[in-house]
Amino acid sequence: MTLHWHYSCLHIAMSEDELKSFFNKHRIKAIINNYQVLKRTLYYATIGEDHLPAILFIHGAPASMTIYKEFFTDEELLKRFCMYAVDRAGFGVTDGRTEPSIKKQAEMIFPLAERIQRVHQPLIIMAGSYGVPIACRLVIDHPNIVQGLVLVAPSLGPGLEKMYWITPLLANGFLSKVVSKEYKSASIEKMNHKKELEKMLPLWSKIDVPVFYLQSENDPVVYPSNAEFAKQHLTGTPYLKIHFFKGRKHDIDSRHHLAIRNKLLELFKMLMK
Length: 273
Known about the structure:
CATH architecture: 3-Layer(aba) Sandwich
Largest sheet: 8 strands, mixed
CATH topology: Rossmann fold
Structural class: alpha/beta
Order of helices and strands: HHEEEHHEHEHEHHEHEH
CATH class: Alpha Beta
Number of strands: 8
Radius of gyration: 17 Å
CATH superfamily: Alpha/Beta hydrolase fold, catalytic domain
Number of helices: 10
Oligomer: single chain
Helix content: 25-40%
Shape: globular
Distance between the termini: 42 Å
Number of domains: 1
């Protein structure tokens, strides 16, 4: 986070037109739409044929739906899935202040997940980093909507992540006036994350869908000890598969796109049996 701070000062939040240009540049055939929830307007994109099963991508922080661009053009996924990706509150095209509450963030995404699940079955959610507990809370609070989870660099256990000295300044200090909304939103989430995850401690056993856990073995941002937390707390899942990639990178979606894609296909095959 601190290494990229100089860039964040120059970063401009993406408009809907800029998102369309991004998709065109990367030859992604996407339809952009939005919906109203909890006095917010959330933007999402749809890629692929609408008669197929679905994947919903939920990004971490700071990030947006654009981090999944390699998946949106993956021929193996396009053959099998209609893909959806949402910009969470305070990130990407979705405007406004972020929402520190994990429960409320899950409630914001629930109407989209419910709409998808009515048309596409099974529905798999792939979430990254801070998007992971939001995806998990959605499964906990709304059973039978989601049939499987792929969790990438998951932040699950309270305090099992790196806290940066600069985070309070980016969240509420003088630096909050000059950084991009994504970095301010990410910092606000980080400042509240431990107490928000503590609220979830009694709830993890309610997750009753198959879970794939993927992470770098020496992730310096979200600690690999979250895997042990998953083993101890995801006691209701019928299947938990943990896979570590070599290296220290936290953002592994692009670097390990093919391997992650194969895990999505593995989970899909399991669900279709």
